[in-house]
Amino acid sequence: MSKLLIIKSARGYLRFVEKTFSFTDLNKASVYPFEQISDIKEKIVFLHNEGIKDAQIRLLTIIEEPFQEDE
Q: Which carries the bigger pLDDT value, residue 35 or residue 19?
């Protein structure tokens, strides 16, 4: 099991590229390890200052298991 952090608002998940951001689906969202929590908190402050007051850090838990197609 892996645990990563993402940023989400009511408009969707956030994707960051350099100093810009966009709203996207989960499969294209920026994900971060716990070690980058200070960077993520800075991004939250930035988003709040940009008027996206509902932006929040969310925990993304990934569980890997064998794929079994239904018969």
A: 35
